Amino acid sequence: MSQPLLKLDQVTIQFGGLTAVSKLDLAIGDREMVGLIGPNGAGKTTAFNLITGVYQPTAGRIEFAGLPIAGLKAHELTKLGVARTFQNIRLFGSLSVLDNVRAATQLHRSHGVINALWRGRAFRESEKEVRSFVMDLLGIFKLDGCADEEAKSLPYGDQRRLEIVRALATKPKLLLLDEPAAGMNPTEKEALMHLIRFIQEKFQISILLVEHDMKVVMGICERIAVLEYGVKISEGTPAEIQSDPRVIKAYLGTEDDEENVEVVHA
Amino acid sequence: MKTGLDPIYKAIASVRLPGAKRWLLVGIALALVASYFSGQFNRYYLGVWMDCGINIILAVSLNLINGHTGQFSLGHAGFMSVGGYTAAKLSLVYSPSVPPEWHPVLLCAGLLLGGLASAVAGFLVGVPSLRLRGDYLAIVTLGFGEIIRVIFQNTEAVGAASGLSGIPKYTTLGWTFGVAAITIYVVAALVNSTYGRGFLAVSDDEVAASSMGINPTRYKVTAFVLGAFFAGIAGALYAHHKQTLTPTQFDFMKSIDIVVMVILGGMGRTGGVILAAIILTWMPEMLRGFADYRMIMYALLIIALMMLRPQGLFALNFKRKGGGAA
User: Fold this and answer.
1) Nearest to B189 among A52, A116, A147 (CB)
2) What is the ipTM of this complex?
3) Considering the entire predicted model, what is its pTM?
């Protein structure tokens, strides 16, 4: 990890008098899987929104591959190689499964208006290529069987998977997953962990997992950062995090996180 | 889709791409043939059918903005008037000095110039206002349409409130339906491409589209400019069909008429929108027998249609199903 792919340097954001994230340092290396966890209201989602350009940091720097990215629009960020999923799934509901992914490929294969109207040989070839690229990608995730179905008609688990496939179609270097386990039962969570690990191996990309569910994060991340009240209180391997008294205290300190406390103790 | 017909669907999907241009040629050829025989039609019916062609252009182009891209423009009559006045002025100035056999060329120049003037207007209105969404965008475009109308109403060069008259009658059935075929082709070919899926993506979820590398502003402006371009051409055809232009022809009600065609046809469904444009052009004509009650009947029929088919005339979904490759 000589030069990190994503680097947050003393990033702070304040909303009025409230400091939601304070002096956050975080680095994600090439092909690294990092988890960002913390109890409810710790600032995980705010940190995620800072990276994806939804919020501007009040102070500090955010760099991707050496370039400052604070202030970039979402589509510019995607162009650089950062893709994301949404906590509450945001597919293009009325488009087919195929078209959902197809829409995301145009970053690399856009023809513009003239070619779409003229429809020459090169255009047709490339449309065919897009289709086979998308079908291959869907095939990897066993979604090719429902390629022509409306995205919103898919079962919940498939929608989550499709959202990840769509993000991968932009050919990212870094994939940001915003609470992918939200609303999943234990079996689905298990499958999700396999899926994320598989993506990281297959596509050789970095993944930042912002997650509430400790079990999922502990199971797959190489490194974990823990937030509490907007401050990073600990960072290390899953084993280190599990035995860190500050982390245990942070999770014990909130009443609504009993489920997670057990995991920490386990 | 998983039926025994699957290979047939696939076959159709695979020939449709190279065949798209062929369909366009068929459409234009049909329009020209109809135009050739149009001398034998009843003049009244001929006029209404030309109105149909113009309304198809307007509705299909507005559908790109309001249907496919999910914006809400109420300014289509404004764009139409920009194109109409531009082309009419051109014809009024040059038609005496141009030999009759060159009149179609003059019309062609008028159509292009009118379309371009309108596209420029679309760009100027679109860039600042497309940051707004839904109702707010509707109000801004509505305001724009009214501003254009007031400008024409107070400009002596285009006849102010009395408008332009004596515009040569160049528009024929062939021109209206030929241009309608081109409009349908352009919108369909655009939307049914990988590039064009961006319009639908923006319509479905702008935030998600942006996260997938799609620049929503660019797509919205493109839709707006293209929509305005074809509205301008429709306006030019209209000018050379009605032969007189007054600012009141392009008031807010005209925009509403086009929006109704799009909504009734089904947002984003080209086939339905074409059908709705034809039906809504003929309906007031058919109701002439009701004399004073005509517009009330028209309104009642629209209400009935909306209640019976709130999803649009065509439940068939042309663009989003049936083999994504098309």
Assistant:
1) A116
2) 0.86
3) 0.86
